[in-house]
């Protein structure tokens, strides 16, 4: 039998060292930069030297398309079709992410440039109660709007968070015939325009019940918008809790409500906190429902249940429509403060989302809770028998009326 010996020259370094398609070496970065330069040079030549067409947006879009084609061809020739497809998809997603990030930076930068001049000590300590059209920009501030935002947001959290978490627990832990209609209703509420929520509260609370404009009415409208965000996010988080934890608690004799309160919710604590913060960020920047519910006022209203009340979105909307330059400057300052609040909330949500489960929600405490169920239900069943003639067998969940004597030898 003849043995075929492969020629060493048939092997290449790429065949000897396997690596992931997305691994970028210095040569790969060179191919990326070369493809980009080739695409820019080709499109610049076509647009400004050969063809009678112009347009910056069109040129850059075609440059991006040509870059993708050149880059895929080059990678295919060097690394094969698998790596070429992977690099093409990575280039498309990275390009879209960079564009979105650039747009976000442009918006934030523009608001910072326009509003930084209005951020003074008076902005956080004064109201618009005694500010006229001839007063300088350094006089007057948004203290009443900031306090109104905090009070309305706090009341919104008190209303929406318990309802949202309870609904999520029902959908994920209880279920039944009503689960599908409730989930459909929550999904429908997620797409409700904010102005519709404001109109609903305006017609149902302000006109029908005659309560008038107030921060409480604004909180009700914001709660309608915040509720689906908290519910859907919490439901997704609860699905991530391992089913083995529930089964272990139930096997130890824990009731369903005890499993939810002592095992499921503590395990998903960081995710639930993220859901609440995302809901707050969703509600804090809404303007349309506040026009119909809070109405706005230039003074501080500490009673959230009576009388019109201002907040930052409504403060910005009312001042930016003014022809006075000082008022417009205050509006930009309010917009900057609002963006900072939203960015802080989203950043906090990301941090909590990545935070490892610690404290009460950690695995050690979950195991402690499960062990606590064993001891607690042992005591429960023993306490119901004054003669101590019944024991609770946690191994198979059966009560033994005639226990065998314990061997103490």
Written description of the protein model:
The chain has 409 residues and is mainly alpha-helical. It has 2 domains: 20-113, no CATH class; 143-365, MetI-like fold (Orthogonal Bundle). The chain contains 16 helices and 2 strands. A two-stranded antiparallel sheet has the order 1-2. Helix 3 packs antiparallel against helix 4, helix 4 runs antiparallel to helix 15 (325-354) and helix 6 (143-174) crosses helix 12 (269-284). The radius of gyration is 31 Å and the shape is flat.
Write the layout of secondary structure elements.
Layout (H helix, E strand, L loop, with lengths): L12 H4 L9 H25 L5 H24 L1 H35 L5 H5 L17 H32 L4 H12 L3 H14 L7 H25 L3 H9 L4 H12 L1 H16 L3 H6 L18 H9 L4 H30 L8 H21 L7 E3 L4 E3 L9
Antiparallel strand pairs: 1-2
Helix pairs in contact: 2-3, 3-4, 4-15, 6-7, 6-9, 6-12, 6-14, 7-9, 8-9, 9-12, 10-11, 11-16, 12-15, 14-15
> Which band does the percent of strand residues land in?
under 5%
CATH top-level class of the largest domain: Mainly Alpha
The biggest sheet amounts to: 2 strands, antiparallel
Distance between the termini: 74 Å
- As a whole number of angstroms, the C-alpha radius of gyration is 31 Å
By DSSP, the count of extended strands is 2
Anisotropy-based shape: flat
